[in-house]
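Researcher: We plan to redesign the surface later, but first we want a full-length starting point. Tokens attached.
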């Protein structure tokens, strides 16, 4: 008995000690984040907060990450490709932006990662890490990213891990090489010095902790913090119902053709506190910038965001670190859109990560209906204003990330103007933008009638209008999607509205800009972008009439929509109870599934009605083809099917198309291989 009591006390003391150190580590990364935020130069870092900081073990696991500053979505990405591949010396700073050399640690060229070793008594204790989204790293487009880029070479300068500082001395040749290949070298240097300052601060703080508590004790606490988070994660995930849950999501096209991009996940809950996300059946990598270069990692934050968010929501006082990802295993098909191979373009990889976020939410909704949000708007149009053609006087300035609303759950409405997967991004204040770029912001508001209706409605999307005030200004709008396939609802809730963008020139009618990334506007042209809302949950006729009336009073829901969709009559700003009762008498078929299923909206529902069986058969057939021809073969099969008529396409027609394409490719690829071998 005495031994049991002593053991319990020791465990309690250990738990308290781990918690104390975890908070000390958090204080270090919070201070790092503050340094970057207050000393950076570009709008996208100092205002939008697209940056990150962390403390990392020598083995490459993040053991401390801030909660309230910067990009939370990179938490836990494995860093062993750098931490264990460098001969570290005191004062070194290593930088890289290469997704392929780092095996999926870096995800696109605009993200510059920087590392500094922390030595205590001549031994490596840990590493400090920062990243910034560099507004421009060269390449074809201002801001470096065009959705139609087909190779990573088009997206800017790519640097494998290299020492920017060696023993505290700047390697000017490395920086000059980078500076000479980007549009805003002085601003980028300002951001880089902010990163170096944050790394230096982390080194000082960790060395002081080691002086006070001892290097061995600090080192033990680093790993104990990871283990503690893993244990809490297992507790949460063990409460999910065991089984497998499959879900499918789409991009409505791949920006270079009309063929949608299909992403599939099978969520398997094992019952031991771990889960598996199997992406087998997802489409091959595309000839556009949507690809996720995840390096075939077994754990990756971009493919597990929804699961991570669920764990954090359900676990009190959990410390955010790589211990969460230890419990989320991945199965990734080779050369796919979620596991791309060199040299696939990857500039807008986060657009795909957003779709994966909703994909996993769909699987979780099947497992625990109503306990997680349904789909959010699924769109983030990052907008730049570039005057780089003016030379030294020019700039590339982020105008605003234009997003939509988040999805509702079975407990509450979605959040308006904030998509869950990118909620860490802040807006750029109008005064700052108009001081730094030749634009006038005409509107920045919520978009009325954009929500997915339900007992709990989705959040409303954002509407944003800019007037261009310089003839040399180029507008870059990347990340456009959900212009046909909208966010889905569930449990009787309905899908939301789509996103879009138009331009209005002087004395002209508005015109659709479409999905162009780089757009040369006319002087005085007003560009309007809007994001769709989040999906709804539960029957719209079950929504509290007073909540509907409040949305009408706020100008967010029109009186006509209130009557037609929610069955609520609003007169003189108040609910007309008698008219509402009459409207809600007969339940209407609004397109949702009252049995608790999903409403995917008209466009996706029709596409799946026509192509659903074909998509399944094509997905099973593609892995047997050479990587280089898979996306072409997929498009060719659809082309042949379309030539036979409008569909739906049945199994025999699909088999014929697959056979024809396979035969054609077999002859052509064999001849090409023989020619290459000669």
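Model: Full-length starting sequence:
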């Amino acid at each position: 008995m005495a031994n049991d009591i002593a053991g319990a006390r020791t465990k309690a003391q250990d738990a308290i000690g781990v918690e104390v150190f975890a908070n000390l580590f958090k204080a270090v990364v919070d201070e790092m984040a503050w340094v970057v935020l207050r000393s950076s130069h570009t709008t996208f870092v100092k205002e939008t907060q697209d940056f990150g900081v962390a403390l990392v073990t020598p083995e490459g696991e993040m053991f401390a990450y801030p909660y309230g500053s910067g990009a939370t979505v990179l938490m836990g990405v494995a860093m062993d490709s750098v931490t264990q591949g460098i001969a570290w010396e005191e004062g070194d700073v290593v930088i890289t932006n290469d997704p392929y050399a780092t095996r999926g640690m870096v995800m696109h060229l605009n993200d510059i990662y920087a590392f500094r070793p922390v030595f205590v008594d001549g031994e490596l204790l840990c590493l400090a890490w920062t990243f910034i989204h560099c507004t421009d790293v060269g390449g074809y487009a201002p801001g470096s990213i065009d959705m139609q880029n087909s190779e990573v070479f088009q997206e800017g300068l790519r640097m494998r891990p290299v020492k920017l500082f060696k023993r505290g001395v700047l390697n000017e040749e490395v920086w000059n090489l980078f500076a000479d290949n980007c549009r805003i070298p002085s601003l980028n240097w300002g951001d880089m010095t902010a990163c170096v300052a944050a790394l230096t601060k982390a080194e000082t703080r960790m060395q002081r902790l080691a002086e006070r508590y001892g290097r061995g004790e600090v080192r033990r606490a680093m790993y104990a913090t990871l283990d503690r988070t893993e244990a809490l994660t297992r507790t949460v995930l063990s409460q999910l119902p065991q089984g497998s849950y499959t879900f499918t999501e789409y991009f409505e096209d791949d920006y270079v053709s009309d063929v949608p991009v299909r992403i599939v996940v099978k969520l398997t809950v094992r019952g031991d506190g771990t889960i598996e996300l199997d992406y087998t059946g997802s489409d091959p990598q595309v000839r556009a910038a949507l690809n996720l270069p995840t390096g075939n990692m077994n754990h990756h934050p971009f493919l597990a965001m929804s699961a991570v968010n669920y764990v954090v929501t359900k676990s009190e006082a959990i410390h955010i670190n790589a211990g969460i990802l230890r419990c989320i295993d991945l199965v990734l098909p080779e050369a796919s859109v979620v596991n791309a191979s060199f040299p696939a373009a990857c500039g807008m990889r986060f657009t795909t990560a957003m779709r994966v976020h909703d994909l996993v939410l769909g699987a979780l909704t099947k497992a625990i209906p109503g306990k997680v949000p349904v789909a959010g708007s699924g769109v983030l149009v990052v907008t730049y204003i570039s005057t780089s053609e003016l030379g030294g006087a020019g700039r590339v300035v982020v105008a605003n990330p234009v997003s939509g609303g988040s999805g509702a759950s079975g407990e509450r409405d979605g959040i308006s103007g904030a998509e869950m997967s990118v909620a860490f991004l802040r807006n750029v204040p109008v005064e700052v933008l108009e001081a730094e770029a030749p634009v006038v912001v005409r509107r920045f508001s919520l978009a009325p009638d954009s929500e997915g209706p339900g007992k709990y409605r989705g959040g409303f999307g954002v509407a944003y209008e800019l007037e261009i005030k310089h003839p040399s200004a180029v507008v870059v709008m990347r990340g456009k999607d959900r212009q046909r396939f909208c966010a889905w609802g569930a449990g009787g809730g309905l899908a939301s509205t789509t996103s879009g963008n138009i331009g209005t020139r002087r004395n002209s009618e508005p015109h659709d800009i479409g999905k162009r990334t780089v757009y040369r506007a006319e002087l005085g042209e007003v560009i309007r972008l809007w994001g769709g809302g989040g999906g709804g949950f539960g029957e719209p006729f079950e929504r509290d009439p007073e909540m509907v009336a409040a949305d009408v009073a706020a100008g967010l829901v029109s009186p006509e929509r209130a009557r037609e969709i929610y069955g609520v009559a609003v007169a003189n700003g108040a609910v007309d109870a008698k008219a509402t009762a009459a409207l809600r008498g007969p339940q209407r078929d609004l397109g949702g599934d009252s049995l608790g299923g999903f409403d995917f909206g008209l466009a996706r529902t029709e596409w799946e009605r026509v192509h659903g069986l074909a998509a399944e058969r094509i997905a099973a057939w593609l892995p047997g083809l050479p990587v280089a021809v898979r996306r072409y073969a997929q498009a060719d099969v659809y082309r042949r099917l379309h030539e036979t008529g409008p569909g739906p396409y049945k199994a025999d027609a699909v088999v014929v198309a697959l056979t024809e394409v396979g035969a054609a490719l077999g002859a052509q690829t064999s001849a090409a291989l023989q020619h290459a071998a000669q």
